[in-house]
Specification:
This is Xylanolytic transcriptional activator regulatory domain-containing protein. This protein has 1102 residues and is an all-alpha fold. Helix content is 57%, strand content 2%. α3 runs antiparallel to α6 and α36 runs antiparallel to α38.
């Protein structure tokens, strides 16, 4: 490497030139290589010295790997010493009566099949010490790598490798690996105890051997033998029977046929006479048919079946979880050792560390068995020396990810089959077997196969009728017979004491075995049977719901999953539909959830596109309000049943379905007659948050022992509950129940939606919404909620002291606080995908993007409402710069006005595809919130011209809503809210005159209160001075007085000019959110403020 080349490459990188992807990749790769060699931090002499160390490391690594590769050691044994080893695996005996068994090729065979323990020990100890020459090499390489890392300022060698590999940090990696280890260790210990028990039984059969019943000792060299022996006994495999389906000639012919097909080659049989001159052995021959070979080797026997029997396949499947678990444990030992030796705490640590003892300690902890004495396992670990140093963990990460993805696929593709799978990581940990995906699929088509392939320790029943209940019995929040309540810190149930009650429930989620359920370290739930909660009327409520909607139930469910669910994905579609399709739905689906789905779907009654034939009618052709069974169901009756049944669930048996029912009922548009959902849903929201915390939704479930799909569902429900609480807190003006420090939930990602069978929603009908877009909408709404919640806590706090401090601060302090929120909103808007724009409407598709954009505008209005209030309360008061005060006020009010124009343009631009889509609960009050904002701007106007402008804008806004309200429930509700909230305000009179009169009256009252205590001398002054004081207030007393000191902006007199100005300031997509105007506002405010008050550093906007 040359420094001149580095300088040139760095210059190209600094210019930020637009390179093609391949060139940019090459540039980044080369710069990374130079940075790894210190060109950005070291001088030439230091680089030269470092290069010598690197060359030394490379030479040592080559020598280390060569020593392992060329090792030819082994042990000599007599036939008696290897008794039990199959004849095919035995080596030929020499003249001295012994045979040589190499460590590289025969160690596993000898230690797993030979019966003599002395043979095991001799083989294990010899193999463990076979590469002793690598001991000094290992230590020197570790020291040199650490020295190179610390020279560049890194903490250790591992930290220099992470930026180019899978893990984000050593802390994350340590947490992940130890979590995997903690999950597998209990199973490893149980397996160790089973093997020890097998050893005890075997020793008892030996003459003269006496072994105590509680003896769990296991010499490390005997483990493989007794483990193999136990597997052969518990999970036998007939290798010979399986081998009959793979005869050499037939298998080789099939392989050649595959090669011929894939590689477009031709393979012709060679005649025996042509082989005579080239054959080196009598067994070399041409190809023969499968039948000829079989009859030759099995004279007089019938041909075996063409397909391998299911029983043989089941034998292999039954051993698969144990093999995976064993391999993973061994991999974990190596990975943890790799990271430990490459991340020493100090420079001196590698010189003092006993690497063999450290490796043995990891083996003892992870696999519950150590290594033979004097073994040197670290001397044969080539992965640490051929490019995988501090990176071998990637295999574990990818392996666990593959298991999770595969198990999730099997679970969701086999929902109605007896082979539905749990998260395979849990099966590996528990020792349960999971059929492969192809066998599961085959079992679905042929139920008899699933009976033959039944696995050991499975929770599933063998009949399709019980498959759904078996699937749910693996969950924590949707268990068919049990509900689980979170045990938090400080409760009566001390987590440390639970082990004294029943230590077997550790990482266990089967409520039949214990009243406690621990799903992770320190996370425990209290299990209670549903029948103990007094829920005897649950089935009758569900039956009543079904009677009300019959025969429209399936059509309504289809409507819900085509229109509502994609935009508000809080249900697991696969689980719901599986339960719904049962013959007796009342047994499987709770009444509140069932009624909530029906109620929401009824809002799109006319959108059903079911065929006109068959037993289920098309919804849009049935009558509304009729008494026959073909009419539209009674929504009020459904709502009453749902509310009554929901209260019973909340009190007696809360589950995830309870949270789902609450959320869906809260999404209903307020009814005009106040009989159903009146819109004042704060009480139900409070209950929702309480149930969510009861179920532990406020705790991160990422490492819990529950199915992967339930983890995603829990995260979605947690965020849905949080969003419901925060937006309700805003629109109802109530203190939030959710505290950020208590709700420890990670941000939503697209992974949280995996496994939800939504791929068939985009079916081309005019009322379908794209599933992927709906998921992104939900994620970005959650991110927007975080910004809104922070602003709500800052500007509208219910803490009396905090509110008093904020109210006492001046307007500039408020603007400074607003700026940070505005920047967060800008970042949110910048990161919004194109598919979530308002114009992203596809033909014959409904588009729910509107409620996301409306929520954004309400967040902005909430902020500017605070600015307007703050300016009205305490405007800038500098008597020496009256014009500057007024200019600052005008600037802020112009920005507030621009926000109003943007949101009005948004409402006017709503298309039928937007209006007829799903709008969530806050939409109606959000539109009413805009009316309040206009009224505040009107009330704080500087004069009649500005007041008239805002009065006209309010009339225009009402008209925009009225022309869009027909058939749109949330717009109708918004108009009603607007009429009820501020209907007593007389906007025909100037707010300037009204406010001035009110101020005069207030000042007169204050003076009259003071007069008795000031003596009769004040009587002569009286109210005349009060009136005079009100008419000649000092500049800065009110917004009106301050603005009156300068000429009124001519733009205020013409609303059309204002509209044109707003459009011109926002030419790009971000202009829909007024981002450009916000940035201009704060830049102008900062510049103006520094001009007005150059010495006032305390108020400088940063």
């Amino acid at each position: 490497m040359r420094r001149e080349m580095y300088i040139l490459l760095q210059a190209v990188n600094d210019r930020k030139e637009c390179l093609d992807p391949e060139s940019q990749k090459l540039l980044d790769h080369r710069l990374r290589d130079y940075a790894e060699n210190g060109f950005d931090k070291l001088n030439d002499a230091e680089i030269q010295h470092r290069q010598k160390r690197s060359n030394r490391i490379e030479k040592l690594c080559t020598e280390y790997c060569r020593n392992v590769r060329t090792e030819r050691g082994g042990e000599w044994f007599t036939p008696q010493e290897v008794y039990g080893l199959p004849e095919r695996d035995q080596e030929p005996v020499g003249d001295d009566g012994k045979a040589f068994y190499s460590y590289a090729n025969k160690q596993v065979d000898v230690m797993s099949r030979a019966r003599d323990p002395k043979t095991h020990r001799q083989m294990a100890e010899g193999a463990g010490y076979s590469c002793a020459k690598n001991v000094p090499i290992f230590r020197e390489v570790m020291l040199l790598r650490d020295e190179n890392a610390r020279q560049l300022g890194a903490a250790n060698h591992a930290s220099t490798k992470l930026p180019y590999r899978l893990a984000e940090s050593l802390e994350w990696l340590d947490h992940f690996l130890n979590d995997v280890a903690d999950t597998l260790i209990p199973a490893a210990r149980a397996e160790h105890n089973n093997v020890a028990a097998e050893r005890r039984c075997s020793l008892k059969e030996e003459p003269g051997e006496e072994v105590p019943e509680d003896d769990n000792t296991m010499p490390p060299w005997d483990y493989l033998y007794y483990s193999t022996k136990r597997d052969d006994k518990v999970l036998p495999i007939d290798h010979a029977a399986i081998a009959e389906y793979f005869p050499l000639h037939h298998t080789f012919t099939a392989m050649l046929a595959l090669f011929a097909d894939y590689l477009q080659l031709c393979f012709d049989p060679i005649a025996p006479r042509e082989l005579a001159t080239v054959a080196w052995h009598q067994d070399v021959q041409g190809w023969a048919s499968f039948k000829e070979v079989w009859h030759k080797e099995h004279p007089g026997e019938d041909l075996p079946p063409e397909r391998i029997p299911e029983s043989h396949i089941a034998q292999r499947i039954a051993r698969r979880p144990g093999n995976i678990r064993s391999n993973t444990l061994g991999l974990l030992v190596l990975v943890l050792f790799d990271l430990m030796v490459h991340s020493p705490p100090s420079r001196e640590a590698p010189e003092k560390l006993d690497f063999a003892a450290a490796f043995n300690a990891y083996s003892l902890r992870i696999k519950s068995r150590g290594l033979p004495k004097n073994a040197l396992p670290h001397t044969a670990v080539t992965t640490l020396f051929d490019g995988y140093d501090a990176g071998f963990y990637a295999y574990t990460c990818l392996f666990m990810t593959a298991l999770t993805v595969k198990a999730s696929y099997v679970e969701n593709s086999q929902m109605q089959c007896s082979s539905s799978a749990h998260d395979e990581r849990l099966h590996v940990a528990s020792g349960r077997a999971t059929p492969a995906a192809d066998e599961s699929s085959d079992a679905c088509a042929n139920p008899s196969k699933s009976e033959k392939a039944a696995t050991v320790g499975s929770h599933r029943d063998d009949t399709d009728d019980d498959a759904g209940r078996a699937r749910l019995s693996l969950t924590l929040g949707l268990h068919p017979t049990t509900h689980f309540k979170y045990i938090g810190p400080g409760s009566l149930h001390e987590d440390m004491l639970l082990d004294f009650i029943d230590p077997s429930f550790r990482y266990h989620n089967d409520s039949d075995a214990s009243k406690f359920c621990r799903v992770a370290e320190g996370v425990t739930f209290l299990a209670r049977l549903d029948s103990a909660g007094g829920g005897e009327s649950e089935n009758s409520d569900a039956e009543a719901v079904e009677r009300l909607v019959r025969p429209h139930g399936p059509g309504l469910v289809d409507l819900y999953f085509r229109i509502v669910h994609p935009s508000y994905p809080i249900l697991h579609k696969g689980v719901f539909l599986e339960r719904y399709r049962r013959m007796d739905r009342a047994t499987f689906l709770p009444a509140p959830l069932l009624a909530a789905v029906y109620l929401l779907a009824m809002d799109w009654w006319e959108y059903d596109q079911a065929p006109l034939v068959g037993p289920v009618p098309q919804l849009s052709l049935t009558k509304t309000g009729s008494n026959n069974n073909m009419s539209k169901p009674d929504g009020d009756a459904l709502a009453r049943i749902a509310s009554r049944a929901l209260m019973a669930e909340v009190v007696h048996r809360p589950k995830l379905s309870t949270v789902q029912a609450c959320l869906l009922l809260l999404q209903r548009a307020p009814s005009s007659d106040h009989t159903g959902n009146s819109g004042d849903s704060w009480v139900l929201t409070s209950q929702l948050v309480a149930v969510a915390e009861e179920l532990g939704l406020h705790v991160d479930c990422g490492f819990w022992n529950i199915p992967a799909w339930e983890k995603g569902l829990r995260r979605r429900l947690a965020w849905a509950a949080l969003m419901q609480d925060k937006w309700s807190s805003l629109i109802y003006g109530r203190p939030s129940h959710v505290q950020a420090s208590h709700w420890r939930i990670p941000p939503l990602t697209i992974v949280d939606f995996w496994g939800d069978n939504d791929t068939d929603d985009s079916d081309g009908t005019n009322d379908s919404t794209e599933v992927d877009k709906g998921r992104l909408l939900f994620i970005h709404l959650a991110r927007l909620t975080e910004v809104m919640a922070g602003a709500l806590a800052t500007f509208y706090s219910h803490d009396s002291q905090r509110h008093a401090e904020f109210s006492a601060s001046d307007a500039m302090h408020t603007i400074e606080l607003v700026k940070s929120v505005a920047l967060q909103l800008r970042a949110w808007a910048t990161g919004l995908p194109a598919c979530l724009r308002m114009e992203a409407v596809r033909p014959r598709k409904l588009c729910s993007n509107g409620y996301l954009h409306l929520s954004y505008f309400v967040t902005e209005i909430m902020i500017y409402r605070c600015i307007v209030r703050s300016l009205a309360r305490s405007p800038p008061q500098r008597t020496d710069n009256v014009s500057g005060n007024a200019a600052l006020l005008l600037l802020c009010r112009e920005a507030a006005k621009t926000r109003l124009l943007h949101v009005m343009r948004f409402v006017e631009g709503l298309r039928p595809e937007h209006l007829q889509a799903f709008w969530w609960f806050a939409s109606a009050k959000s539109l009413a919130y805009i009316r309040t904002y206009v009224s505040i701007l009107w009330a704080t106007s500087s004069g009649d011209a500005e007041a008239e402008f805002y009065r006209q804008k309010l009339d225009e806004f009402r008209w925009s809503l009225r022309v869009r309200a027909r058939g749109v429930a949330f717009v109708t509700a918004a108009l009603r809210e607007m009429g009820e909230s501020l209907e007593d305000i007389d906007m025909s009179r100037s707010p300037f005159v009204q406010r001035l009169a009110a101020e005069r009256a207030a000042r007169s009252m204050q003076m009259q209160v003071r007069i008795p205590s000031m003596g009769d001398t004040m009587d002569a002054v009286g109210s005349t001075e009060v009136t005079h004081a009100a008419e000649s207030m000092p500049v800065g007393g009110t917004v009106a007085d301050t603005l009156a000191a300068v000429a009124v902006d001519p733009l205020l007199a013409d609303g059309n000019d204002l509209d044109d100005m707003a459009l011109q300031t926002t030419p790009e997509f971000l202009a829909d959110f007024g981002v450009s105007a916000s940035e201009t506002l704060f830049a102008d405010i900062k510049s103006l403020h520094l001009q007005l008050y150059p010495m006032d550093d305390a108020h400088a906007l940063l």
